[in-house]
Amino acid sequence: MTKDRLADLQAGILVLRSNPNNALQVVRQMSEHRTMHIKPSRWSWNRFKDFMHFYIMLGAIPAALVITYVNLFIGPARLAEIPEGYVPEAHEYFPHPITRWMAKHINKSYQQEYELMCHHIYEVEYEQKLRKAEHRIKQKMAEKQDTQAYYYQPVTSRNERSIRVNTETDIEMSGTN
Amino acid sequence: MEDPPSANGKTNSYAEFMQAVYRTVDRPVTWFREKVVVSNRPDHVYYHQKFRRVPTIDECYTDDLVCRFEAQQQFNRDKLVDSEIVQLVRQRYKECLISEQPDHTRKCAKLMADFQQVSENFCMKYSDLGPLNNVKDAYMKQKHRMLWERRHGKVGTGMKDQDAL
Question: Which residues constitute the domain of residue A55?
């Protein structure tokens, strides 16, 4: 420490000292010597700067560059009549190039979703009809009381077979007592 | 932007000056667009999708849900197309009104009649059905309308006999 600085310190004058953790901080050299400097937290501010950098450098700027390039140098398509005997693909029904790309690589086409829905309705309708038929049959059986349906238990042996296989494997591995 | 060429060859120096100012901004921008931007774009096209007609709701069996779904989708598409048609007719009528003021009652009468007819037909088919497009409701509306017309005559002429229902 230089002489004049030492004199300043001894006089108790406010000294600006650079903090190794962060920016400048006012320290009054009076009696204490702190290793941990008590100051307001800069955690929120640092996090804010991190978020700003992240969303702007990795989000806004690349998106702006890509969108500018696409709009300038690829540009929207022009409307044309469908040629004879040609079936356009789903992505050729959109004008903007980014929408076209998304329709080609990401989104399901209208026809695909339509046919998936048709199939789903077909399956569900089939099950509905089976349930309704079963309900009607049970009702008739209850009305007329002329079948021996109460003797019939619908049974599958899937579980029993699996238990038997497991038991045999257990006996093989660990033996009987 | 530019005025049409004058008939008697006289020019307005103020107008010429303003157009020259406009050109200082417009010329570079137009040059850039035509030489740099448009020339480097690939020429690609897009089409308007054409859909096949499928059986409508009155041709479907009552327990055929797939047919009903397809009829519903066709109804939705037809509703979009019909709304656009009404919009076009309305736009033509409005443009006539604006450009023919104050003679619009005389000059736009045909367009007004067309618009009335088109919007009446649209409302006959699609209106008063609630917020959800339901093709079965529209079908029933048509059926009820035909019954009513059979009993009372055309819609708008009043009910013949309250008790005859």
Answer: 46-75
